[in-house]
Write a structure and sequence with these properties.
mainly alpha, 4 helices
């Protein structure tokens, strides 16, 4: 047990510490309105220039031309591949008709890859624009357009595989 003088000394030191914390009210900051808080509102600033400029129209035209060309080539080859797929339907796997249809489908898939490559380039540009917080509406529109073409090509290839039977 502690002795009485030790307890008294402990209580006295605590009281002295508490008394030191209590100060006059003049030492606290005033909560009154300061001059800069009631002054005129600053004029709206001009928005900063975008970090990343819009994609050049020449680059967009180049990517649009590449996507259009690869999609047109796909559509031109799709009819021939469809004819071969119908001829291969129900044929054994070792047949010449089946082999010809598989080659035609592989060529269509390679052409689809060209369209997908263009879409990948567009995706990279859209990602750069998003990272720089400067979206480009023309770029996004072209990306949607090429993605729709690619979806059309995917559906065409799936339809041909279904026609031929796997």
């Amino acid at each position: 047990m502690r002795s009485q003088p030790t307890k008294t000394a402990s209580v006295a030191s605590l009281l002295a510490g508490l008394a030191a914390c209590a100060g006059g009210s003049d030492s606290y900051p005033s909560l009154a309105v300061r001059p800069f808080e009631s002054g005129p509102v600053p004029a709206a600033s001009v928005p900063p220039a975008p970090i990343r400029p819009a994609t050049p129209t020449a680059r967009l035209a180049e990517l649009r031309a590449a996507a259009t060309a690869s999609h047109a080539t796909f559509l031109a080859r799709e009819d021939g591949a469809a004819r071969l797929a119908r001829a291969a339907a129900g044929k054994p796997f070792e047949s010449n008709a089946r082999a010809a249809a598989l080659v035609a489908l592989a060529e269509l898939d390679a052409q689809r890859g060209r369209t997908a490559g263009t879409l990948a380039a567009l995706d990279a540009l859209v990602a750069e624009a998003a990272a720089a917080l400067s979206p480009d509406p023309a770029l996004a529109a072209l990306q949607s357009e090429v993605a729709a073409s690619l979806a059309r090509e995917d559906a065409g290839i799936a339809r041909l595989w279904e026609t031929m039977g796997s």
